[in-house]
């Protein structure tokens, strides 16, 4: 009975048509920190997450979507270690239920939100048994959903989720390569059994190439399958001629990464180790072909680094493209790797290779507004990027409410106001219970 009551309350909260009654947990945190103590804030945050988790059982899709959005906001605004420790498995399987084909009639939006929530969960738990469970439980549903390709709008989040869970929970290179193959088949079905005649849109191609490159950046020992690498490089080279700028940029970064990890150098070493002409003929052909491809790519990069732009071309985007391909040219011709620096609070986070830069950019894009918080407090990301913040960043006393936030908090219909009132009432009841124990217990039982 208690669980059903809890779910009804959750449904009412996340189903409300009044926008003022539903707010992100980041806003909740800011408002409450301005008017209440840390214990109240933690109580309301835990309550929000518990209610959102209960709401994932509701039949109405919009209710589940709002609940997932609330969960994602909570993971972005704080490291939810305590919640994850208690509710890790429940959250994972509720999100997977939204993704699995043939389960609830989930919308593309719900599938995208559930995928993103799983990725946030993986980054929060870091390496370990929980990350491993996320990977093992999620890989097949993600593969099946990507293969079905019912709605292209859900695919980017599925790809990002697959990339993140493999990055965190994959144990070896074979598992990474399996995930990369799943991604590749989405836009290049010739390499798999899922042959689809529909031409993928440019945005999907860019998303696949970025996710594929992100995982490639983690591979240390490449398998020298010359045909696969020739196909991959040829395909990426063809993308440099596409009209869509995001596709060209993603392909350029992928090619720079491929040459940084030494594909041609490895074929050259294999050629040098061949003991006779017969054994060396195939490596020699592959080496010559790859050298020819590299020459073609260099010429394409030269053209893209000086592109004049076209009608309606955004100047900022054009400059980004030019700068990127100048960097790629410097790398191809002189061996210079990119060197970028990013401020995280008062500390500097640096990347000095294509691999590091692409990992940093991918995770920054995935976390969005939660990137700074995670880089400050997420020990897994500290380990990945060799980043050690000099101090903790506690902003509990630094936030000033805007006029809109004050109105939202003061509104009698505000969920935050209701949650805070509920918290204070429970504290009052508990306090009174010290003197009137039987009365307090009766009130609590009645509320439950």
From TrEMBL:
InterPro entries: ARM-type_fold (IPR016024), IFRD (IPR039777), Interferon-rel_develop_reg_C (IPR006921), Interferon-rel_develop_reg_N (IPR007701). Pfam families: IFRD, IFRD_C. Residues 21-31 have a biased composition (Low complexity). Residues 378-428 form the Interferon-related developmental regulator C-terminal domain. It comes from the Eukaryota. Belongs to the IFRD family. Residues 1-33 are annotated as: Disordered. This is Interferon-related developmental regulator N-terminal domain-containing protein. Residues 24-333 form the Interferon-related developmental regulator N-terminal domain.
């Amino acid at each position: 009975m208690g669980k059903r009551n809890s779910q009804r309350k959750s449904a009412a909260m996340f189903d409300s048509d009044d926008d003022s009654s539903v707010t992100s947990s980041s806003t909740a945190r800011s408002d409450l920190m301005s008017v209440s103590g840390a214990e109240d804030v933690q109580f309301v945050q835990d309550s929000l997450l518990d209610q959102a988790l209960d709401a994932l059982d509701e039949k109405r899709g919009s209710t589940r979507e709002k609940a997932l959005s609330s969960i994602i906001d909570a993971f972005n605004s704080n490291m939810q270690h305590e919640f994850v420790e208690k509710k890790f498995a429940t959250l994972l399987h509720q999100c997977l239920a939204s993704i699995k084909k043939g389960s609830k009639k989930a919308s593309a939006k719900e599938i995208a939100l559930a995928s993103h929530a799983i990725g946030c969960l993986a980054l929060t738990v870091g390496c370990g048994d929980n990350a491993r469970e996320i990977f093992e439980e999620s890989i097949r549903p993600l593969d099946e959903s990507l293969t079905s390709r019912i709605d292209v709008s859900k695919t980017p989040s599925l790809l990002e989720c697959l990339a993140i869970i493999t990055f965190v929970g994959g144990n070896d290179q074979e598992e990474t390569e399996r995930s990369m193959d799943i991604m590749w088949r989405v836009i290049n079905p010739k390499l798999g059994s899922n042959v689809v005649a529909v031409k993928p849109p440019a945005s999907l191609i860019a998303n696949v190439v970025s996710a594929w490159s992100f995982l490639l950046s983690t591979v240390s020992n490449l398998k020298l399958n010359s045909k696969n690498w020739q196909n991959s490089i040829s395909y990426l080279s063809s993308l440099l001629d596409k009209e869509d700028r995001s596709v060209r940029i993603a392909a350029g970064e992928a090619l720079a990464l491929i040459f940084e990890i030494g594909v041609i150098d490895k074929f050259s070493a294999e050629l040098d180790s061949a003991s006779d002409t017969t054994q060396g003929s195939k490596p020699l052909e592959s080496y010559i072909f790859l050298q020819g491809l590299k020459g073609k790519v260099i010429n394409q990069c030269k053209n893209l680094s000086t592109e004049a732009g076209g009608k309606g071309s955004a100047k900022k985007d054009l400059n980004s493209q030019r700068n990127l391909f100048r960097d790629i040219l410097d790398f191809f011709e002189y061996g210079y790797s990119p060197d970028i620096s990013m401020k995280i609070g008062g500390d500097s986070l640096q990347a000095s290779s294509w691999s590091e830069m692409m990992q940093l950019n991918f995770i920054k894009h995935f976390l969005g507004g939660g990137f700074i918080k995670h880089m400050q407090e997420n020990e897994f990301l500290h380990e990945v990027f060799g980043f050690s913040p000099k101090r903790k960043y506690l902003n509990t006393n630094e936030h000033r409410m805007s006029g809109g936030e004050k109105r939202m908090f003061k509104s009698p219909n505000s969920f935050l106001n209701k949650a805070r009132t509920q918290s204070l009432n429970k504290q009052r009841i508990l306090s009174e219970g010290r003197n009137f124990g039987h009365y307090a217990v009766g009130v609590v039982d009645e509320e439950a």
